Amino acid sequence: MVRGFEVSSFQPEDAGIYVANVRIETPKKKEKCSATTIVEMLEGSATVTIENRESLARDKEAGRAFWIICNLKLVNIKLPNNSDPYNVDWYRMIPGQHLVRLTEETHGETFEFNKRKGTYRLNFKNPTEDDSGTYRCRFNKFGVETSTDVTISIF
Q1: How far is it, in rounded angstroms, from Cα 50 to Cα 53?
Q2: Lower CB count within 10 Å: N or C terminus of the chain?
Q3: Residue 121's CB: how many other CB atoms inside 10 A?
Q4: What does each C-alpha distance from 27 to 24, 30, 31, 90, 140 come to in angstroms?
Q5: Which H/E stretch holds residue 66?
Q6: If pLDDT is split at 50, 70 and 90, which confidence band does 33 have?
């Protein structure tokens, strides 16, 4: 008896039409059934945008906390934990285009990382002029990568 069919490690070449023919024979009758299923490979995509880009274009005051708010829109991608603030990565661009990844472990005194109301947020706790620069919100999971940058000026 067959109770199901599963492709456990789906690959693009597994897309196609699958046909199952079932024949049931009992002493009194014979029955046949056919089932067809179409399996398509749906490509995932992601878009990141800075929700508060307009307000971030204005100079920020040193010592006054503010957020960079990153929206993440996913198509055909399911995250294991939607509440994980590390579904996106945050970077700071150092002059000369050198990227430094920001994490709680390495930059927790300066920044707070969280997810709230469907957005990912980088909180500048007590910003100084030295925190001025370009910051990046990046999604890079399941073979899909996208990012967006924003430049902050603190006086």
Answers
A1: 5
A2: N
A3: 21
A4: 10, 8, 11, 68, 59
A5: strand 66-75
A6: confident
